[in-house]
Design a protein that fits this description.
By secondary structure, the protein is mainly alpha-helical. The chain has helices spanning 8-13, 23-32, 38-61, 73-89, 100-111, 117-132, 138-148, 154-171, 178-192, 197-212, 219-227, 234-246, 258-268, 276-284, 288-315, 330-343, 348-365, 372-377, 387-396, 404-418, 425-441, 448-455, 463-479, 486-489, 514-537, 577-585, 603-614, 618-637, 657-680, 693-714, 733-738, 743-746, 756-766, 776-781, 789-795, 800-821; strands spanning 545-548, 554-557. Strands 1-2 form a two-stranded antiparallel sheet. A hairpin with a 5-residue loop joins strand 1 (545-548) and strand 2. Helix 15 (288-315) packs across helix 30 (693-714). The chain is extended, with a radius of gyration of 44 Å.
Length: 832
């Protein structure tokens, strides 16, 4: 009986014409009319059962064969064809083929190793088809598919692996079934803990793939992968370590979740705000060459801002992820892995992987592993293999929670071995860079004498060494400028800055960036106050005026002359005496700028006023002294309209009490008005400290503007008037722990000077897209299509009347120009 043909007796028994039907054609007809072909289904099912029994008998007879192949290959082919046929029609006959999936799975489970490769793949594909059509649950077949991956058949392993990954992804595509996921994870976790290397390796590969695709992106999977680092088999340990170290370099596939792709897109499109003035200058002001340079500078500034924002977003905890983040017992994991590192006999590359994972865990979770630093100290030598990787691990393991005494021997070892006069320039550059990175995390390790010695390398003729030394100087300009000599301090943003003591922490008391919002509100209020005062000053006379500038200080004097002494500016927040004097003097309702005199004031009232002023302190006395002197000058010279600058050191005179009271009342009234304006001003945020969505959006915009201003100033687009900020910003401890230290950045990468041949090659490469240079006249001569209108105008024969009119117009224009410039002599001078 053939495997692709049915017997004629079977077809005639069902009452149909005796035509030969193949299994594919019968399959298509059975799908169209399931009830009309039940007899054929029973026939094919009985043939499958007989073929299965015959194959098992032949396998039992030939058990001594090494390959396990049956004597008759046609039996295996018949069995595979009928298994695939029944798998395709099983959804249409659920009652008749209810036991077929379990029988097929049991057949694979019992005799998978002895099956031929072709039959094994065919039966596996039939079982996968049943699982996809939900005839079999994935929880019942997961262990079977994981076992099939360990048989050594490459095609079968790839088929089973892709099926499991696809099934679990499809199951969690719309919503996650925690119960089903937990049962599947338990199967894989149990296989991972087995000592058999092949099963543990396949389960680890499956877990890593599902975790990388963010299907099982939970703590249980991350901890299971980290636990694989302690597997007795070295290959399993190496695979787990490689996944943990390379996870940050793995990019999401194109078929990952939509949410993750949206996050990536939002992360790769930073928000940049530029001033309109800088853009206008780059495109419209200056010559073509200067505009080209400005455009290039603007593009560099934009690229630098985008790079900074991208780095900050990558280093932020919201977008960063690593399986080491979700360790339940990070301290125990680091200690256990470090103890295995100390006792293992693996090759050097494996030890370096273990060392990097331990350092990454210590830096990420801010652990204290004191024995780790003396262990690294033994290998800190310039001639050590992969010394930059070792130093990067040492830097990664340093954080502010580690006692400085534990890291100080390692720190001194790095300085003594790498930074000395007989060392190579590459080693010196690496040593200074490592010192800078360690001091960035633990500034207390540096002392003043050592810093002065390292700073002297800024005069080195090697560019890598001098650059490393200058980077160290820029770091300590922000951390502790007092440790540098005066000429190296520059202009730090905070001259009194100092590193925090061991165990000291800074607690955030407000929303990050809220000071930008407050400063922006203060600037707007200052502008509003200045405009209000300008309106009030319009009603005053020319004798004197009172204005409030943007610094919220009071200036007294005329419109054209002001006092040079800054002590005349008195703020309402200095002391409480100002408020008392304001309340006491507010009853004087006359305007000080008018030309009329006040009524006479009794001596008692003057004495009381003087006593109140004396109680307010020395600063207030100086203010009233200056007020009195200025008022005397204005009262004496106000009739003539002259403005005289009076020194603030003149003694007080009591000859003109009316002028003194007039000026004092004016200054105090201005101070009171300023105080009332400040008190009536609503705060930028509410009393409970809750900011609205508009406030957060405004903070984001102000941050972007500030970064744009710093970048434009750095590239010279704002000129000398731009606000100069520090180009280096010290990151926080959490950001440093999250950031991965790249060993390549510790090395010295100096761009070598190109030779003449290389420069010529670059020049010629830039000329390829550009045509050959030709003069403009030559281009005009080679022009095709006739002469231009301008050329035709020159060739026209002009009539005599038109020529005379043209000459007359030129003479008139010349006379008009001479009359406009006057009789100034513009020729050569006759004398010397």
């Amino acid at each position: 009986m053939s495997s692709t043909r049915l017997s004629l007796e079977a077809l005639s028994a069902s009452g149909r014409s005796s035509e030969k039907l193949s299994l594919p054609s019968l399959q298509s007809k059975m799908k169209c009319d399931p009830e009309g072909y039940e007899t054929e289904l029973g026939l094919v099912h009985s043939q499958f059962s007989s073929s299965l029994e015959l194959f098992e008998q032949q396998a039992a007879l030939s058990f001594a064969s090494i390959s396990g192949v049956a004597a008759d290959p046609t039996v295996a082919k018949d069995l595979g064809d009928r298994a695939a046929f029944l798998a395709h029609v099983a959804p249409f006959y659920p009652k008749q083929l209810a036991e077929f999936p379990s029988r097929l799975a049991e057949f694979l489970r019992s005799s998978a190793r002895s099956l031929p490769s072709g039959l094994r793949c065919t039966v596996t594909q039939a079982l996968i088809l049943l699982v996809n059509r939900k005839m079999v649950d994935i929880r019942d077949t997961l262990a079977l598919f994981m076992e099939l991956q360990t048989l050594g058949d490459r095609a079968l392993r790839k088929l089973a692996f892709s099926h499991v990954v696809h099934s679990i992804r499809k199951m969690n595509q719309k919503h996650k079934n925690e119960a089903t996921n937990r049962s599947l994870q338990n199967v894989l976790f149990s296989l991972l803990q087995q000592e058999e290397e092949t099963k543990a390796k396949q389960s680890l590969i499956m877990l890593c793939e599902l975790h990388r695709r963010k299907v099982w992106f939970d703590d249980r999977t991350a901890n299971a992968i980290c636990t694989a680092c302690f597997h007795p088999a070295s290959r399993i340990m190496i695979a787990a370590l490689s996944f943990l170290l390379d996870y940050e370099k793995i990019e999401d596939d194109s078929d990952s979740d939509a949410s993750s792709s949206d996050d990536e897109l939002s992360r790769q499109s930073p928000h940049v705000i530029l001033s309109k003035g800088a853009v206008y200058k780059a495109h419209h002001q200056g010559t073509s060459a200067s505009k080209k340079k400005k455009k290039a500078k603007l593009q560099r500034a934009i690229r630098s801002m985008k790079k900074q924002q991208r780095l900050s977003s990558d280093n932020s905890s919201s977008n960063y992820y690593s399986p080491l983040n979700h360790l339940k017992d990070a301290q125990g994991f680091a200690e256990k892995l470090f103890s295995r590192l100390q006792t293992c006999n693996e090759r050097f590359e494996v030890k370096m992987m273990m060392l990097k994972v331990v350092a990454r865990t210590v830096g990420l979770h801010h652990l204290i592993l004191l024995n780790f630093y003396p262990f690294i100290q033994k290998y800190v030598q310039p001639h050590q293999r992969d010394v930059t990787t070792l130093l990067a691990a040492a830097v990664q393991a340093c954080h502010d929670m580690v006692p400085p005494d534990a890291v100080e021997p390692l720190f001194k070892q790095i300085v003594n071995q790498f930074v000395h006069d007989r060392s190579r320039p590459e080693a010196i550059a690496v040593g200074i860079n490592v010192v800078r990175e360690i001091c960035l995390r633990m500034p207390l390790l540096m002392n003043e004498d050592l810093l002065q010695d390292l700073v002297l390398y800024k005069k080195s003729h090697e560019k890598a060494v001098s650059a490393a030394a200058r980077s160290l100087i820029s770091l300590f300009r922000e951390l502790c400028p007092s440790m540098l000599v005066k000429k190296d301090r520059g202009r730090p943003s905070d001259p009194t800055a100092r590193p925090m003591a061991y165990g000291e922490i800074s607690v955030a008391s407000a929303v990050p960036g809220v000071e930008l919002l407050q400063n922006d509100d203060d600037d707007e209020d200052d502008d509003n106050i200045g405009s209000d005062e300008d309106i009030d000053n319009e009603d005053s006379d020319d004798g004197g005026s009172i204005g409030i500038d943007n610094d919220n200080s009071v200036s007294i004097g005329s419109e054209n002359a002001t006092s040079d002494d800054e002590e005349t500016h008195a703020s309402t927040d200095d002391n409480e005496c100002d408020d008392e004097s304001l309340d006491g003097d507010s009853v004087l309702g006359e305007d000080s700028s008018s030309g009329e005199d006040f009524d006479e004031v009794s001596g008692d009232e003057v004495d009381e006023d003087e006593d109140a002023k004396a109680d307010c302190g020395d600063d207030n006395v100086e203010v009233h002294d200056e007020v009195n002197t200025i008022s005397e000058t204005n009262s004496d010279e106000g009739k003539t309209g002259s403005r005289v600058k009076i020194s603030a050191t003149r003694k007080r005179k009591f000859t003109d009490l009316d002028g003194q009271i007039n000026a004092a009342e004016t200054s105090l009234r201005a101070l009171k008005k300023l105080a009332e304006t400040k008190l009536s001003q609503p705060p930028s945020d509410s009393a409970d400290g809750i900011l609205s969505n508009e406030d957060f959006h405004r903070i984001k915009q102000l941050k972007a503007k500030k970064e744009a201003k710093v970048a434009l100033t750095k590239h010279g687009l704002l000129g000398k008037g731009g606000e100069k900020k520090s180009a280096f910003k010290v990151p926080s401890s959490d950001q440093l722990g999250i950031k991965r230290v790249d060993p390549a950045k510790l090395e010295a990468h100096v761009k070598q000077k190109l030779s003449k041949e290389e420069r010529l090659a670059l020049v010629k490469a830039g000329r390829e897209e550009r045509g050959k240079y030709q003069a403009r006249a030559a281009i005009k001569q080679k022009k095709t299509g006739g002469s231009s209108n301008k050329q035709k105008e020159h060739r026209k024969v002009m009539p005599m009347a038109a020529k005379r009119a043209k000459v007359q117009r030129s003479r008139q224009d010349k006379k008009r120009k001479q009359g406009r410039f006057g009789k100034q002599f513009r020729g050569k001078k006759a004398w010397k």
